[in-house]
Amino acid sequence: MKFPRRGAPGSRAAAPTGHGLLRGAVRHSAGRTAAVLCCSAASAGAALAVPAALGRALDLLLDSGGGSGSSGSGFDGGSGSARCWLLVCGALIVAVVLLDALEALLSGVTSARSTAWLRGRGLAGLLGAAPEHGARLPPGELATRLSANATEAGTAPVSAAALAASLLAPAGAVIALFLIDFWTAVAFLAGIPVLLLVLRAFARDTSDSAARYQRVQADLASRLVEVLDGARTVAAAGTAERERDRILAPLPELAVQGRRMWRVHGRAVARGGVLLPLLTTGVLAVGGVALAAGRISVGDLLAASRYAALAAGVGAGAGLLGSLVRSRSAARRTAALAALPPLAYGTGRLPEAGPGALDLRGVRVVRDGRTLLDGVDLSVPGGVSVAVVGRSGAGKSTLAAVAGRLTDPDEGRVLLDGVPLASLARGELRREVGYAFERPVLFGDTIGAALAAGAEPASAARVRSAARAASADAFVRLLPRGYDTPPAEAPLSGGELQRLGLARAFAHAGRLLILDDATSSLDTVTERQVERALARDITPGTRLVVAHRLSSAARADLVVWLEEGRIRAVGPHPELWRVPAYRAVFAPPGEHSEPNEPTEKGR
Ligand SMILES: Nc1ncnc2c1ncn2[C@@H]1O[C@H](COP(=O)(O)OP(=O)(O)OP(=O)(O)O)[C@@H](O)[C@H]1O
């Protein structure tokens, strides 16, 4: 079979809806995000109150110690009050520390939960779509989108809350400046438009470089996974060094984008670093003038200088803004998976005890602008075995995918026992249609669990009889822990793995079984044994077998001969064998010494 084509690394599988997905994540963790915001706000409030309390304590101390003589008991009373205010200061500082600790804890939990939510959405989108959609992106790219990108996107709710909260203290500080002296606040606000321009440029440049950085990161992962997958080819070709260089080729670009992000950040920090001290100095200068004019006290000036410093904390928002921008860019990449078109299911059911009659009517499949199947009309009576043959690339696997609804045709309908596949409930469809593939993958903690997994878990007895039918039972029992052996610990040949794939399909056999090149690694004797056991021991139903071997076609009740996405002929093998072009499917013309090669049918 052909493996579905993949787009360029980093290409998007669907329209990005990163913003929508982030909104969903924020909504999902609204309670925890609100708690983070409350902690931050309370901490900012406490931090805001500290300068006022400190200024008040200083004024009281100056009043009482300065011997102003305004009252005879002023010294004791004044220093007592000052002590009170100092205690308030201490309590506020402790509150700030505790609230910050709580905020850090809640932030961690919130980010972890929203990451899990985003990852779940991405994964659900990927697994809910037709497999060919996911296959457009390389595995490394998919893994990056569901791991690193989802993690970065998951920090968005906390970053947003922290950004909002980080503005509270500066906003409160500006209000406090207004209350202390109008002109100190004006002095600070005069520089804000410039600061906004700096932040805007920062957000724009960060967004661009973060998106590029994340794309290159995924490209690196894709190359790595590709090479790991093809480790034997690399070893056989002796191209390890070349492959290492190829994997690392995007590294300079990663460094460029990483440096660019730091430069953008550094530029914003440097500009803020010049602007904000200028503003605080301005506030102090204006405050000094106000003190000299007698409009404010020394304590007020101290408070104003602290508030100016707090207001300058608005510059710290740049870091949070940067992380929010990176989260958005990462969310866009995960969202592309969540937005894949789902393979929708109906609620329909199949007629009881139907024979498994399969009908394809006017089926047309177009992928990436290429017509893979066209005008396919096929009626397969229930209970027969059908071999789908044709040259490589004729569309056999595509037909097998459409027949069991791994993908939907662009035109036409596929019916099982008269019911359109698209109208069936997912459980019903997957119970009644089984698949085995050329390269099966075993999911499960043990081989037994991997074989039992399906729309309905198969019993241990059923798994064993299916494994016997697939000629897998004997070698599984020879494994150190038999059926309890974890798949990763079982050294399996290609043929053994295929037999396990067949066993899994047999254990869940319904009324239609589709074997897509699922016996290509089996020797002909084992293949024959499996076919016999399938007919004898497994629920009789319709079998659609994508076959390259002449013997498989010869033993089938019916052969569907595909050519360039169209059905060239349907009929029993002996009839088709009379056609030279049909014989040429199995070997180039002239290579058949016996044009009417005897079939193994009925042996
Ligand atoms: N998602 C896709 N996008 C574009 N072209 C595709 C896609 N999937 C398959 N093709 C192409 O469609 C053609 C039919 O593929 P298919 O896998 O059905 O052929 P096949 O007959 O099973 O081939 P083989 O015997 O080599 O396995 C091939 O040329 C293949 O490259």
TrEMBL record:
SUPFAM superfamilies: ABC transporter transmembrane region, P-loop containing nucleoside triphosphate hydrolases. The chain crosses the membrane at residues 33-54, 85-106, 160-180, 186-203, 268-292, 304-325. GO terms for molecular function: ABC-type oligopeptide transporter activity; ATP binding; ATP hydrolysis activity. The keyword Lipid biosynthesis does not apply. GO terms for cellular component: plasma membrane. Keywords: ATP-binding, Membrane, Nucleotide-binding, Transmembrane, Transmembrane helix. Coiled coil: none annotated. Residues 34-313 form the ABC transmembrane type-1 domain. Gene3D superfamilies: ABC transporter type 1, transmembrane domain, P-loop containing nucleotide triphosphate hydrolases. It is found in: Cell membrane. This is ABC transporter ATP-binding protein. It comes from Streptomyces paludis.
